[in-house]
Design brief:
This protein has helices at residues 2-25, 36-54, 74-78, 153-161, 165-168; strands at residues 83-94, 97-104, 106-109, 116-119, 126-138, 149-151, 173-177, 183-188. It is of the alpha+beta class. The strands form 2 sheets. Strands 1-2-5-8-7 form a 5-stranded mixed beta barrel. The chain has a two-stranded antiparallel ribbon with strand order 3-4.
Length: 192
């Protein structure tokens, strides 16, 4: 009787262990999603894309004696394939590429006027790179017209950096990112 009891207990423990392992590994039927090979490939592809966007910029020389910046961060990779509303603190061109220092912000309709109110974000700025063919659409106050018009990357950098940092703090931009976290479109938010 004791041997039978031990076997039953052992079988129950093994069954519970097997079910637990199945639950943890996500094993299931053929229609339950990608197999391990597909998941590993997707993870490797995502990691490679993130690594490529993070290491794509040349080091940025430091003006304050600290170590140079290595360019776009993991935040840029996190924005891959999305559209973000941001503030742009600074812009520069290096090695034929344009880089923007950005942080998320919010835009809200003004309660009494037909205008936007920009709610500044908090935290550090993140440097992101623009693709060579990224479109830049500006309107007043950064552009010349009330309607969006196309500008070159150099014109955009010159216009933005000519403004004081307090002026730049009240400007907002919609940025579109490609699958590698690089900016493909910059559109300024028209403000009165």
């Amino acid at each position: 009787m004791r041997v039978a009891h031990r076997r039953t207990t052992t079988v129950r423990c093994l069954t519970a262990l097997t079910l637990g392992l199945l639950a943890l590994t996500g094993c299931g039927g053929p229609d339950d999603g990608p197999d391990d090979g597909q998941a590993a490939t997707a993870t490797a592809t995502a990691s490679a894309s993130a690594s490529a966007s993070v290491t794509s910029a040349p080091p940025v020389p430091s003006t304050d004696g600290t170590a140079p910046s290595s360019g776009p961060s993991a935040t840029a990779a996190r924005w891959a394939g999305t559209k973000q509303f941001v503030q742009i603190d600074d812009a520069r061109t290096a090695g034929g590429r344009t880089y923007l220092s950005v942080r998320p912000a919010e835009k809200k309709l003004h309660p009494r006027f037909d205008a936007w109110v920009i709610v500044p974000g908090e935290g550090p700025y993140t440097e992101v790179s623009m693709t060579e063919d990224a479109q830049v659409l500006l309107s007043v106050p950064l552009g010349d017209e009330t309607q969006h018009a196309a500008y070159t990357h150099d014109e955009f950098v010159d216009r933005l950096t000519a403004r004081s940092s307090s002026d730049r703090a009240v400007l907002g931009f919609d940025l579109s990112f490609d699958g590698q976290g690089r900016v493909t479109r910059v559109q300024s938010l028209a403000t009165p």
